[in-house]
Amino acid sequence: NREMVTAKFEWDRSAHTIRLSAALNTDSNFDRRAFRSLVIGLRTLAKRLYPELHRLAQECRKQAPPPPQSPVD
């Protein structure tokens, strides 16, 4: 997160998900250009980081214990 200017990663342990998010700080009113710039920045960053995140997710799946078996009736 310290390398990214506006975005940050959020990890939801219960859902096993990682979100890339950003906050748009406005002092007076909603600025459409600032919002568009933020969305474009998130998209660009997601495209750049996807290969590494995908690789890490695959490694985590391999190391995770198998899900519990459902009881058989």
Describe what this molecule looks like in 3D.
By secondary structure, the chain is an alpha+beta fold. 44% of the residues lie in helices and 16% in strands. It contains one helix and two strands, in the order ββα. It has one helix at 32-63, and strands at residues 7-12, 17-22. The chain has a two-stranded antiparallel sheet. A hairpin with a 4-residue loop joins strand 1 (7-12) and strand 2. The longest helix is centred in the middle third of the chain and has 32 residues, at 32-63. The chain is elongated. The model has no long low-confidence stretch (mean pLDDT 77).
Question: How do the helices and strands line up, and which of them pair or pack?
Answer:
Layout: E1 7-12, E2 17-22, H1 32-63
Antiparallel strand pairs: 1-2
Based on the model shown, name its key terms.
44% helix; 73 residues; 1 helix
Brief characterization of the structure:
It is built from one helix and two strands; from the N terminus they run ββα. The N and C termini lie far apart (47 Å). It has one helix at 32-63; strands at 7-12, 17-22.
Largest sheet: 2 strands, antiparallel
Major β-sheet strand ordering: 1-2
Uncertain stretches of 5 or more adjacent residues:
none
Distance between the termini: 47 Å
Order of helices and strands: EEH
Total helical elements: 1
Helical percentage: 40-55%
What structural class should be given to the helix and strand makeup? alpha+beta
The amount of beta strand, in percent, is 15-25%
The total count of strands amounts to: 2
**Shape, per Cα inertia axes:** elongated
Average pLDDT:
77
- What is the radius of gyration computed over CA atoms, rounded to a whole number of angstroms? 18 Å
